[in-house]
Amino acid sequence: MKSRTGFKRPASSIPATTGLVAVISIPVLHYLWPDMPSVSDRDQTVLFALSVFGLMALSEFYFAKLHRLPGSGLVYRLRNFSDPTYIRDFQIKLVGLITSAALLALLYWSADLYRGDWYTPFFSLLADYWGLILGVVLAVVTSVHFMMRHPRDGMWHLGQVVLTMGRQSTKARGLKVYLLGLGVKGFFLPLMFCYLVYDWTFFQSRSLWDASGFPEVYEYLFRFSFFLDLTVVVIGYATATRLLISHIRWTETTVSGWLVCIICYSPFWQVLSRDYFNYVQDDFAWGAWLWNYPVAYTIWGSTILFFLGMYCLTAARMGLRFSNLTYRGLACDFPYNISKHPSYISKNISWWLVSIPFIAVDFWAGVANCIALLGVNAIYFLRAWHEERCLSQAPSYRAYQRYINENGLLARIKNSVSRSEPQTSEKVN
Asked: Which one-letter DSSP state was computed for residue 205?
């Protein structure tokens, strides 16, 4: 598809079928999920996520022919398993894997945050199934290593650093990417998994079909939108591997890029939202404002759900390759043909609609609330700016930028408005 200026939209490297499978399978599987009173909510969450992951992965093999796509860096040669060089490098890589686990263990052990009850689902899972998890990780690392064209990746460089006491590989670019990617997964996976478990528990005692009116429908769908998003997010962080061409190509490397991202999440956001960006009035939001006006209540609530639905679609479209602070592939079609950042736009609009900061006890309180929420919007603008700078290392993303800047829905609206302004002034004159 070519634009009016001749820019052609690049092809998406992330199969669209994966996102479609996620959007369909998550609500359907959740609805059909059997009662399992003898299985904990934590384990049911894992089984549910694995079921969704299996369907997404199968769709990529069947519809997108994943095994035929370029970009994995893998070759299928059995002789690699007996090649002395591969075997020696694998031993070094195992040292890198052990070191990676030790670094994460040190982080989780030393930080008081992770010793709290809130993170119990994640760490109890590791404690109960560490043998199985270790076996899966070793199987994936082994199979990937002996199929790589160039097996000396970041994990290998980390092992080399340890074995040479820092005399080699410390300046390797692959090492930096690997360590930063390890940090991304180490920070986000426990957080998102625990959120997902708590959402699963919430929905165990609720059903959409028991709703007696729009307020209950809204409450259910509002929470379920985040459940859907979290399912995709957890799968994305947990299953990054070259076997599925979902590995991390590179990461955000700037301190400012990391800062504007992680401050939007626990535990940092709790402090910032309470002390600096508190735009929410206690016991007052859009529902209380419009409760006595059923038609307006339904329209307003439906609008919120629309933008939350758009937010969910952005995560689902990334599928197995969802991740903050990394580049793992390109999606150019819906909803990313609307704007480069449909997720941030829809999320920020929903916050204005939910919190209605402009409705306050007095005028100046409303102004203060709006300024606080504008501050949050500014943070997400900075996140978008840093993401574009990071992703622009890919030529395909730069081509996507050029295309969307001219042909995205928001760009077309802006261009239409700008073209109409001179015509209006001429008529007035």
From this structure: T
